[in-house]
Amino acid sequence: MTQTAHRLNDKVALVTGGAKGIGAAVVRRLADEGAKVYFTFHTSGAGEAAPKGRVFGFPCDVRKKNDVEAFVGRVLERESRVDVLVNNAGIIRDGLFLALSEEDWEDVWATNLMGTVYFTRAVLRPMILQRGGRIINLSSIVGELGGVGQANYAASKGAVNALTKSLAAEVASKNILVNAVSPGMVNTAMSGAARAAFGEKIKERIPVGSFAEPEEIAEVVAFLASEEARYITGQIITVDGGISLLSRR
Predict the structure, then answer these.
(1) Of 5 and 124, more confident
(2) pLDDT above 70 for 137
(3) How far apart are CA 246 and CA 59, in angstroms?
(4) C-alpha atoms less than 13 angstroms from C-alpha of 194 in its C-beta half-sphere
(5) What are phi and psi of 29, to 5 degrees?
(6) Which tens digits make up the pLDDT trace of 94-105?
(7) Burial 35-46 (b: 16+ CB within 10 A, else e)
(8) DSSP label at 206?
(9) CA 68 to CA 16: how far, in whole Å?
(10) Quick one: DSSP state of residue 114?
(11) What is the sign, positive or negative, of the torsion defined by CA atoms of 221, 229, 116, 124?
(12) What is the rounded distance in angstroms from the CA atom of residue 68 to the CA atom of residue 61?
């Protein structure tokens, strides 16, 4: 997939968890495509991020419905519309099943699933009124395949996949397309511990022989946000270098 400049001219996009990793790459790519991008970050005590061109960052705890509604309301006051929502914010709290605490489960589900639910609910009515929009959820291949030591994370991403398909069927007639991007191993801080411990072993199992860069995931997100993807909805787009093919054998 090659870059096509300004496919998102005059569009307004929201990206959750846009300060680093995949989220930051998505913010940059959507802005490069011509969108005005608002992103959330969750850093204790952080103030409003300085705007850079067409990019604006504001603090928001995606686990809190009131925070989410206030964030979306702030954007709507400025722009009167939301064309693209990218539900990217996510966390991990890894551990073997019996070692996972209730807090480990609650934190992961509150961020990964309920954050997605809250933001989707907040933008859905405006999208219906404007007769169109794109919702793109960041999932993970463990949402389909599972992962040792990641029962809570895998379950949350499996739920995101189910939400994606269910909502896509519900709102397709409103010209709102809902898809998910499901990465494998990506060079981000979140995957740093796994890459440090098992990096070479994991890489050997990936048919293309390398980890993904955040920008490669962002390319797929930008495509799904564009008019080129106008006939795609309810899909879980796997971007994993082929590793899930081997896992299904």
Answers:
(1) 124
(2) yes
(3) 40
(4) 19
(5) -70, -45
(6) 999 999 999 999
(7) bbbbbbbbeeee
(8) S
(9) 10
(10) I
(11) positive
(12) 7
Tokens of 221: 């997100």
Contact 72, 128 (CB under 8 A): no
Residue at token pair 């705007």: 51
Give tens-digit pLDDT for 176-223: 999 999 999 998 876 666 656 555 777 878 889 888 999 999 999 999
Compute the distance between CA of residue 105 and CA of residue 48 in angstroms, rounded to an integer. 30
Distance, in Å, from the CA atom of 146 to the CA atom of 152, rounded to the nearest integer, reads: 10
Domain regions of the chain by residue span: 12-247
Cβ partners under 8 Å of residue 28, min gap 6:
55, 215, 218
Active site residue 153: yes
Nearest-10 crossing angle of helices 115-129, 151-171: 10
158, 39, 68, 165: which is closest to 109 by C-alpha? Answer: 158
Q: Which fold has domain 12-247?
A: Rossmann fold (3.40.50)
Do the Cβ atoms of 147 and 154 come closer than 8 Å? yes
Tell me if 49 sits within 8 A of 73, measured CB to CB: no
Residues linked to residue 182 through DSSP beta bridges, in sequence order = 238
Identify the bridge partners of residue 138 per DSSP, sorted by sequence position.
181
In the chain, the N- to C-terminal Cα span, in Å, equals 28
Residues 177 and 168: their CA atoms lie apart, in Å, by: 6
Catalytic hit among 38, 118, 153, 231 = 153
